[in-house]
Amino acid sequence: MPVVEASVIVPVPPDVAFAVSQTVAPVRYRWDPFVREQHFVGGATRPGKGVRTFTRSRHGFTMISEYVSFAPPSNVGMKMVAGPWFFTVFAGGWRFTPAAEPGHTVATWKYSFHCRPAPLRPLAHRIGRWLLGRDIRRRIAGYERGCTDPVVLAAARASLADQDELD
Length: 167
What we know:
This protein is of the alpha+beta class. Helix content is about 35%, strand content about 35%. The protein has helices spanning about 15-20, 30, 120-145, 150-165, and strands at about 5-10, 35-40, 50-55, 60-70, 75-80, 85-100, 105-115. A 7-stranded antiparallel beta sheet has the order 1-7-6-5-4-3-2.
């Protein structure tokens, strides 16, 4: 199964880095160039294992994805439940680990996918690696900018405070 991956070091600790990655509209649109529309489905109001989201990409494609793991501040994983016809499988994972420099985080994002139809799969996988590779690099660069954006950081820190109150 093809995989694309991108990493960046951001100047915030892992808990804030994770929280930035989970910001929702409208704050998310400040940093995420891939997402044109995103919201929770099924009555959920915050991310978590089993929660589903609707996403419309900058390409116009839509996908319903489900969180298969949610372990702040270290990782989050999702899988496609419904999406573009050309994917038989699409999944992603985002990992956050402390960087060598204190107060910084290594963010690593990885997507795996499988395309159809079978006769075109070799070509589709090459195109997918190129397109998704380009998108993941743009997206993580936007995330890196978000980790220095005062509005995004304020929203991320507020979500951490809200979570602390729930715990």
